[in-house]
Each structure stands twice: as structure tokens, then as C-alpha cells.
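explain this.
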Amino acid sequence: MVGVRGFIRIKEYVIHGVLFTCALVSIATTAGIIWILAVESMGFFAEVSPVAFLTGTRWAPLLEPKSFGVLPLVCGTFLVAGGALMVAVPIGLGSGIFMSEYAPKRVRAVIKPVLEVLAGIPTVVYGYFALVFVTPRIIQPLVPDADIFNAASAAIVVGIMIVPTIASLSDDAFRAVPRALREGAYALSATRLEVSTRVVFPAALSGVVAAVILAFARAIGETMAVTLAAGAMARLTVDPFVSIQTMTSYIVQVSLGDTPHGTIEYQTIFAVGMLLFLITLSFNVVAQRVLHCYQEAYD
């Protein structure tokens, strides 16, 4: 018979195996996605030069004459993501400072879940919100010539979407700063604002930078809200009030169409997806490096 000690050991082995399987499934899924992207992209780059793909200024794989320059999609993606940061960073950092330095525990207990609910709203809802409210009620009264589908409205709603990411992560970074630093500043007659901006913020800068980079990566990968709000016209422009197309919205457009499997047009989905994956991965790696290399250590 198996004793109590043996039963506990068997149970630990089973739990260890289950947890290892869960980790293995995650790794295998990621590896499978990368494999599919790589294989299909190789077929695309066998016919299209990588240099022409990365440096071309016209993207028209579905029209004659065909052109496979991805720069208009990259430009549209960064236009939306950059505009989203302009909206989200002030609001997110302000919310994080308020929750960590100003808000009473009861108020913070309400604001934190509300931000999490905001992060849980389906992205398609944000897209329709941009179409029926942001563009006609905010953008077009200020810029009458703005298109119905435009980068500015997409940037606004994506910025609202990533506010919880910046607010939550920056709040955690601010709260990780030792209380002794705050008390020392207060002992020197510093105001609460001076403590927040001159002591707490610099001490938590690595966490704040990591939060902004992760939010930027999240904005780059947004799909449905951008597809509905920004339009489907690939153009190389920095004008936020015209219709543009991002990498994710192009993938949606072609995936929902009648593009035959195995054609060069079909393989553009995977080439653009691979580029998007590499960009997002780069930002995540940079965020982790910043957090690791510049994180303050307190005894």
C-alpha cells in the first residue's frame, strides 16, 4: 500500500505534469503560429523582393498593376498607434498618479475595477463608437473636411482602449516606490505634487516606460476598432484626418474576401502578419529590457 507520504509525492508529480503540459501548450501554440507565418511568408518572398516589400511606397496587391510596398500600411499603423499614445499617456499616467498618491482606499477600490471593465469592452464597440460619435461629434465640427473614416478617430478610441494598461501598470510602479522616499520628501516640506512628480515619478520611471511601450505594442496590434474607424485605403500620409489602412485592417480585409488560397495575394496576409509580429515582439523585448536594466532596487 502507498503511504501518506507516497500519496502526497504522487499528487505533486501529477500537479507538476499538468502545469508543465499547460506551459508546453503555450510554447507549442506560439511556435506553431511562427511556423505558419514563416512558411507562408517564404512563399511570398520567393516572388517579391524583401527590399521592395519593406521600402515600396505603394500597396496594391489586389489591383492592377500590382504593387507590394508595405510602407503605407506601416505608416498608417504607426500614425494610429502614435496618436493613441498622445491620448492615453497623459490620461493613464494621471490616473496612475491619482490612484497611488491622492486617492483614498475606498476611491481607489472603485476606480481600479472601472478601469478593468473599460479594458474588457469589445473592440468592435469602440469602432462603432468612433463612427457614430467621435468622427461626427468631435472631429468633423473641428475639421469639416475630415473623412468619415480617418486615422484621428481610430487613434482616439484606441487611446481610450490602452488607458487601463498604462494606468494599471504605472500605478503598480508608483506603489512599488518605498514609503521612506515619500516621507523624506515630506520632511523637507515638499508638497504632494512635488513628491509625486519629483520623487515618485523618477523612481518609478523604468516601470512607466515599460508600461508605455507595452501599451504602444497593444495599439499596434489592434484590429477591429481600427478596421471600422480608420478605413481601408492604403496611403503614405501623415494627415490624421484622411482614410488610411493599417496592417491589421488589411489582414481583416483580405481574410474576409474571396482571395484564392495559395496565390500571391493570399500570401500577403502572412507577410504582413510576420512583419507585424516582429514589430510587436521588438517592442515587448525592449520593454522587458528597460524594466530589467533600469529598474531601481531598494533595500
About this structure: The chain has two domains: 4-46, 59-293. The mean pLDDT is 85. The beta strands are 59-60, 67-68.
